[in-house]
Amino acid sequence: MGSSTILDIITSVIISGFLLMTALRLNDQANETTILYHSNLTLQQNMTALTGILEHDFRRIGYCRDYKAIKDPADAIRLADTSRIRFWIDVNDEIDGSNDDVDSVEYYIGPPSEMTATLNPRDRVLYRKVNNQTPQRLEMGVTQFQFKFFNALGDTLTFPIAEPREIHSMEISLQIESFAPFDVRYTASNDTLADFQMYWRQIRLAARNLRNR
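The structure assignment produced for this chain is given below.
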């Protein structure tokens, strides 16, 4: 075997190795792109579902088809904290002739230690509790659920809020993340949200019934 033949073999091995590495890199990129797409799609679906539930309830705070059931709309919000709220609302939007027309609805967020089945160390359970029923667990990768409350003049109310009657509008901040993102990337990078994180904020949300004072 001549030196030229050995050189040809070595060159062929190098070229084959280079092509193999290129193919593997392209395969990894294709897999990552697929994972990113499905992860973002899941985040969008979860965010749409969550915001739909929140906006449906929060815009109807103090609402009841039997207007006599809530005599003073200012009393509709019963508790308001940084990540917890309780208010009166007619969940079923029905009049059955009893005192059950008005329902107590409460939203609050649990500690990260509850989500032991996911890889994300920061996701929490968002709870929605109606009256004395078992709280509904909204497990959709919630990592932030916070409120700001404002009075009729637009001034920010400080916590703890001893008198919820002062609340005229509110700001809701919601952030969700993937349960198990690719390469375990959860956090923001270079001041840009990562591919596995989504943020939503409703500024100055005001239920119409809170203004009927």
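Interim note for the steering committee: The first helix runs from residue 3 to 58. The first strand starts at residue 77 and ends at 80.
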